[in-house]
Amino acid sequence: MVDTSTSHGVSGFLTRRHSTGDGNAQNNLVLPSYPPTTPEHDCRHFNAPEGTYTLGHSIFVNSMQPLYSVGTTATLVSIKYKEAISNNLQRYEPQPGARSFRRMFGNGHTPSTSNTDSDEEHVFRTPSLSSSSSSHKNNIGTPLSHSIPEEQIAIPQSDTLTPPHNAVSPGSASPTPTSTLSFLARNHTIGRHPRKPKTSITKTNSSFVQRIITNDQLAKILMARTSEDTNLFYNCGTSFVWVDAAGHPKEPLSRIVFAGACPTSHDVNVLTRGADHLDIIIGFTSGDIVWFDPLCNKYGRINKGGVMNSSPITMIKWLQGYENLFMAAFQDGTMMLFDKEKEDEVFHPGDGHRPTLSKPPIHYDEKHMFKISKPSPKISSKCNPVSHWKLSNQSITAFAFSPDCQHVAIVGHDGLLRIVNFLHETIHDIYEAYYGALFCVAWSPDGRYVLTGGQDDLVTIWAFREQRIIARCQGHHSWVTGVAFDPWRCDEKVYRFASVGEDAKLILWDFSVNALHRPKTKPGSRNRGTSVSSVNAPPPSSILATMQDRRPTVHPVQSKTEVAFLQPTMVKTIHGDPCVGVYFREDVVVTTDKRGRVSTWQRPSPTPTTSVSSSS
Fold first, then answer.
1. Does the structure show a pLDDT above 50 at 24?
2. Average pLDDT of the chain?
3. Which residue spans within 404-467 are E strands per DSSP?
4. Which residues, by range, are in coiled-coil regions (predicted)?
5. Which of 263, 333, 415, 498 has the most CB atoms in a 10 Å sphere around its CB?
């Protein structure tokens, strides 16, 4: 049954309101006005080659005023229950991914002997971590490859703690003692119970939290769950909302209203998730970070009051495969690595400990800066940050980890895509956008390609290993705000991805070498880029083997006559307001916009022909 109704408030099903803080009027934010929604917009389906996608839910609370400049982001996470939840909602059990995590620290570390759960993971913001018991199939019934094996994702190699063979040569040495990776190896939490937030959000006297509104049936709902459930979290204005996506998404399980700042980004830790425990990090316009567990309504604050960085947070993500580490990007052009179990401490970049790296820091151009700062060893053992990167004097808008969790792709208002080996804290490549700022970035499930979108109204495809631009995708008529690969419709020959933009359009693309329209170019006109330390870039056969030992390669903008272009597979205006994000799951596609609406689109059902051929 299609549910497309709109929720116009939080009365009725939300009966328990807990006022917190001092309630001073000056703490309440006055959000700027926003343009009206396109009148009479009503999109309930769109057609793609594989069938019709239909609108399942349109989640929208009219009483929540949005922060229009930020819009709404969403995270959908599923938990599979082996059995009914017991009354003890505070117990801790090993979570999915623990087995792989033990492999990472297999030498010299003895983890806990408690039983582990090998349930598969379902998170649409990180499709490389998602899997399921079945796959969508193409017209001839062949399953599409949608993810790489668990052993190859999100977890550094187990024996040597060095990046895999596609990053450095097999004979390369382990990371230096000052590298991020060695810090992680010395300070992992496997084999002990990780800390949980301690402060009750319903009883706190902090002026940062105005109130929390909870469903009066929340305890009963949680106790009744015995099979897989899907939790949806999203932000809108000063609110952070939790709903049951599979059950009654119009009836929030809880909603936190903040007084001191607006949530801008959040992420759920899939490694530590469980029937009684969820680790969520939320970034704010004030630079504050809230570590929140909705199942026990407790929280903790990191970078409280912007003590380490008061610039607004633009994106925040857990490090895949780690229980306590996460990275945040800030509007002032910095990125910081935090540990949720460490304390706050005033931090001034450059005044603390600067590690002696194998290569000197880069000072060739302010536009291409990369400055690393760390607290002194005495402070770093107890206090944040773990590491501080200064990448630009303009805002970092988005970042994404590669499927093997060795590299991070970073984009910003300076129009640059940076590929950074975050384990060694070195930049590999710097690419320039065709025009203006970049707003979004995503990796393909196999780690071969990177997508970006921004003010040039284009989606650009970059080849990571070949270190070059592959194609520009033309179809949007305004800024591109979100890109994502569909792992369930990618195979060895064709990659499906989607983009959304401020034109309120969703565009589906099917990328293959044969689908590219190649412009006429003069022989030898392709520019692979220029190394900072040398005019001649290394030969292709040695690029991957020498990545760690070279300065970054800067790739200048190539003209339209030099780059192939890709045409859309499907174009549809799906929202009445500018779109913000697009996310894929096996069963649905999720889109969000600046007004605060979250839409879930049901995938087309497999055709009878597909089912027959798949069973033969």
1. no
2. 76
3. 407-412, 416-421, 426-432, 438-443, 449-454, 458-463
4. none
5. 263
Q: What is the rounded average pLDDT of the residues 564-582?
A: 97
Q: Show the tokens assigned to 350.
A: 């450059």
**Least reliable range by pLDDT among 72-76, 158-162, 556-560:** 158-162
Per-residue pLDDT for 549 more than 60? no
Q: Can you give the pLDDT at residue 522?
A: 55
What's the rounded Cα separation, in Å, for the pair 550 and 531? 8
Location of structure tokens 């819009």:
71
d(CA 77, CA 506) in angstroms, rounded, equals 23
**336: confidence class by pLDDT, cuts 50, 70, 90:** very high
| pLDDT tops 90 at residue 233 | yes
Is 401:408 a contact under the CB 8 Å cutoff?
A: yes
How many angstroms separate the CA atoms of 436 and 431, rounded? 13
Question: Which amino acid does the sequence have at 202?
Answer: T
Among 7-21, 54-68, 361-375, which range has the highest average pLDDT? Answer: 54-68
Residue entry with tokens 């059950």: 247
Residues 409-426 pLDDT 10s: 999 999 999 999 988 999
Q: What is the rounded average pLDDT of the residues 534-552?
A: 44
User: Which is higher by pLDDT, 455 or 553?
Assistant: 455
Residue 93 inside a domain? The answer is: no
**pLDDT tens digits, one per residue of 575-602:** 999 999 999 999 999 999 999 999 999 9
Average confidence (pLDDT) over 494-518: 94
Give CA torsion, residues 575, 578, 581, 585, to 10 deg.
Answer: 10
Cβ contact 94:116 at 8 Å: yes
Q: Which residues lie closer than 8 Å to 247 by C-beta, 6 or more apart? A: 221, 229
> How long a stretch of residues is the chain?
616
Tell me, what DSSP letter sits at residue 309? -
398 within 8 A of 391, measured Cβ to Cβ: no
Q: Are 482 and 499 in contact (CB under 8 A)?
A: yes
Distance CA 347, CA 582 (A): 36
CA distance linking residue 54 with residue 44, whole number of Å: 6
Backbone angles phi, psi at 277, to 5 degrees: -155, 130
Beta bridge partners of 137: 143
* Structural domain includes residue 110: no
Domains held by the chain: number? 1
Cα dihedral: 93, 95, 100, 105 (round 10): -50
| Structural domain boundaries enclosing 471 | 14-81+193-615
Give how far the C-alpha of residue 196 lies from the chain's centroid of Cα atoms, to the nearest Å.
22
Q: Name residue 421's beta-bridge partners.
A: 407, 426
Contact 330, 286 (CB under 8 A): no
Residue 71's Cβ-count burial label (10 Å; 0-12, 13-18, 19+) is buried
Instruction: Tell me if 169 is assigned to some domain.
Output: no
Return the CATH number at 341.
Answer: 2.130.10.10
The verdict on residue 455 lying in a domain is: yes
Which of 67, 6, 29, 40 has the alpha carbon at shortest distance from 596? Answer: 67
Q: Are the C-beta atoms of 506 and 520 separated by less than 8 Å?
A: no
Percent share of the chain, pLDDT over 90:
51
